[in-house]
Fold:
Amino acid sequence: MGIDDYGKGLEGEHPRDRDPKRFQLLGANVIELAGVPTVDFNMPSGIPAPPDEDQGSSLSCTWQAFAYYFWQWTGIQLSRRDGYSRTHLPGGGGYLADPFRMMLEGKGEGAFDRTQSQDPNPQTEQNMTVVVNLPGQQRKVFKLRYWNVPYNNIEACALAMRTWKGLVIGVNGNNTDWANGEHPNVPKPGTVKWAHALYCHENGFDRGQEALIAKSSWCNWVKRHFIIKDYFTSGNVFSPIAMEVREVPLMDDTLIVNIRGAYGLLRISDGRVLGGVLVANKEEALSAEKIFEKKLYNDDGTLKPADIVYFPAGATALGEFGGQDGEIA
Structure:
């Protein structure tokens, strides 16, 4: 087995992915709001590698990467064929966001897991595009949210990976530069032949550079890929997506957020940010509570637990955000 035997299948960046609003986390631009804390690439993330998968010649890499990430949050093995068969493009493959959008509660259809539907072996494109039909069984719908991380910034991607149990990225490549699957070379301009979706779960060093380590979906050949910093700075990494799977309200609600120690309230509806504010003291908190109709403080004066935590501890970040239709779905 080698690189020539495997399908890739990532369509490339979605036209909307370059919209600066998609670099925001629930409407709060973390780069501007709090900066990017330093990540020690010598310190392991502690995020375990998912069980091996092999997509064979199929173009299902978007679902392979998403399912790895979903397993990390839930321990559930989703049926790759079920998801891919319902999201693939007419010519095969898909966009990175396709599985996230399909699984999102309130907008998606859910998915069968492997207790309901086993994936075929081998995973060829032909047998992976057969829609799974299980009369009398319901696809499982989960509560999740996802967002884009700033492009071409390995530090920001490493921080997001360590904070949210991993990260899905797209990479450009060609078979020559990926002949060594564990240590792929950065493609030179004009040599890109395909794009591939990867799930990153670890950081380290490779060839003297900072690197993110991705779990391969070609595990009958190679178990992991080291994506070095030059891959990011050259523009050959795109559309990184972080995800959270939690039993927290997603639609039409007001959430308590903690962004690096600064508390605030965030109002969302139909997956979009309507507005929000971070507060500096209890006086500001009282005003925010009246506006957003939700309590930040308990009756005994202690802060309520945050529904969402970004970059816990560290410097505070104060100021307003939101009101710009910051899309998270």
